[in-house]
Amino acid sequence: MRLMLVVAGVLVFSVGITLNVLTTQTDRFFAWTIATPMTAAFLGAAYWSSCLLELLAARERLWVRARIAVPAVLLFTLLTLIVTLLHLDKFHMASPEMITRLGTWFWLFVYASVPIVMGALWLMQLRVRGSDPPRNNPPPQWMRVGLTLQAAILIPFGIALLFVPEAIAPYWPWTLTALTGRAIGAWLLAIGVAAAQSVWENDLERVRIATISYAVFGLLELIALARFASDVNWASVSAWLYLFLLLGLCVIGFASWRAARQIQN
Asked: How many domains does the chain have?
């Protein structure tokens, strides 16, 4: 499992480079063309924050402090495989450029194999003998409420984008297609599940790595918003709600991270 997390972390970091650095060149350096740079930047920020989560989980000595990373990552990879197969005609499977074609087939290979391997490893990990240490450091009540609210927002929105992206697209802060809507929906659902699991774990040490990734996700998404503010419809209510959601992610993430560090010290 530790090796799987490291490999997955390296893979999502490499995807993040394409989306964060070559944001406007997805027609050549990504598995499919993303016409709206804000969408590419959103996905890139999500991939880099996921990289941090997986690498931090791989460094943990206790499973109870690493498992926060596994369900969300497994769910995301499975959903992304389904989204890929639904929109396979949009992918650069037969691109005339070798680098584009190879990258696309590698994308398909990764998302076809990672859910199977990680799912099998998760089942093996659950069979390992041992017991969880007690929950000695519950988070403050306001933090639990905040995580619960965010899970209650992200999970339904993620599901809606996955099933009816065309119906949600008019209310999104920037332009979405069915493919990009579902790609974002997979991330929102996975992050919402991680937030819900954090509430269930109810211990700052158990969710420390998730809170770090949570804060970094919010910060990177704010940077993406600043980079491509012209893509966003600031006249819409949804744009400002999205901004406040990101600020909330940053506040809860950094506050939880700080509280966990104080416990360790």
From this structure: 1
